[in-house]
């Protein structure tokens, strides 16, 4: 079983980063009084055993202030990923799903498959958007809903990576409600469709709405309207949102008005929201109290 190095000095940190060669090093910058840090600790221990070809380490920011300062750590927990002496990625916040995605992405080809997976596609988890990744892990499945959905082809299918799909029922319109288990920032959306003719065309997006229905779609001003074209459903295509309007999202409503070729029903194979969680503890806010202790 792999072990986590609890680094005790600046020199020990420098040696670990500089002497690990091409091995991925994941460093957890934490504090003993940080709630999210304590919450993610068991997962960090678990993942260290799952990926034996990756070196995991922890830095107590109160004990090794020089290291935290040199690494520009401003929030906790912060996870930094190093390879060949260089930082290759950083994640702020206690996101188990994003930590593992970054491990898969940066561990290297020699280590791929050691967790029992093929490793294929992991480098595309953020669809080329730096600092963001797939937010599926932050969705609350049992609170998802879709109005005018076909009960056999329901909304839960759009968060599965298989051939299942969501389909509307009596006409082409759909209202899809997606709740998140914590506030997130949403940068873009990836929409997959098997049949382009039935794929969504005009989609109105609403943030942080409760009990949203078709009457609300006519009376409530949308956060953004997107008009989709066939090219938006290509393999590597993503639809960018007006990021400044999606900075603190706890739920999202998608109102699909019509589809590409005025088909009787609309189909969506998969929905992927790309962004980042809002869950880090700001160290500067706690600095004064920490110094008094």
TrEMBL record:
Domain PITH intervals: 124-293
Region of interest: Disordered: 104-126
SUPFAM superfamilies (alphabetical): Galactose-binding domain-like, Thioredoxin-like
InterPro entries tied to this protein: Galactose-bd-like_sf, PITH_dom, PITH_dom_sf, Thioredoxin-like_sf, Thioredoxin_CS, Thioredoxin_domain
Keywords, in A-Z order: Disulfide bond
Biased composition (Low complexity): 112-126
Domain (Thioredoxin): residue spans on this chain: 1-108
Gene Ontology, cellular component aspect: cytoplasm
Protein's recorded name: PITH domain-containing protein
Species of the source: Phascolomyces articulosus
